[in-house]
């Protein structure tokens, strides 16, 4: 099996092949995603929400991210593995950012990192890239800034915010990022930004003009009950399927129907 690299990802954009990305946080799920042929597994800090039950991505720690990322690395033979740097590890001193980045690379074996923001974090991005660590950017709705936004609604709808996003995208490409996630922005803006960049864009709620797409795996499998934004295509309703299976198991145990003669020694 040939490993997908940041180089492969850039070639995919050059030849117009869309890039398929899903999040992953654990060994068993990552093995399924990798065997199915996913290009990138993003160990997103959405782990805070879907794995750890936090209300936002703000509280998750570097140690927690390293734990999730290590499990994914042990599972994936082909996919490129990108890990979110959590809130607080790269927004201040760029030497602290580099330390956090180096920890993830050394302790997990992942291949790349993702950070949220543009001009504000330019120094940190450059410093990490200069150390030889591939960095993916993330613009638009950046959930680590939820308390600044105050809402999870679509970003960059006004011209000022759209212009800042255009400039940030160029800046991230110049700083050496190998790709940029565009989250919850108008499709027309995402298509324009994607066309103007040499590096690929990975959209979530950013329309068909992006070079790839990403979804949170729990959302697309229907595990995350009640979360159904417009951009989400839900491929399964695993919440219901798992709930039904567990209900049947409970019934079987209570009725002394499980285990049967063939299911014991
Ligand atoms: O944490 C995450 O899952 C993400 C993707 C939604 C882009 O950052
Ligand atoms: Na994230």
Automatic annotation (TrEMBL):
Cofactor binding comment, as recorded: Binds 1 Mg(2+) ion per subunit.
Annotated binding of 3-methyl-2-oxobutanoate, by residue: 45-46, 84, 114
A GO-annotated cellular component: cytoplasm
Sorted UniProt keywords: Cytoplasm, Magnesium, Metal-binding, Methyltransferase, Pantothenate biosynthesis, Transferase
Active site annotation, chain numbering: 183 (proton acceptor)
Top-rank taxon: Bacteria
Pathway: Cofactor biosynthesis; (R)-pantothenate biosynthesis; (R)-pantoate from 3-methyl-2-oxobutanoate: step 1/2
Gene Ontology MF annotations: 3-methyl-2-oxobutanoate hydroxymethyltransferase activity; magnesium ion binding; methyltransferase activity
Protein name as catalogued: 3-methyl-2-oxobutanoate hydroxymethyltransferase
Organism: Parapedobacter composti
Lineage: Bacteria, Pseudomonadati, Bacteroidota, Sphingobacteriia, Sphingobacteriales
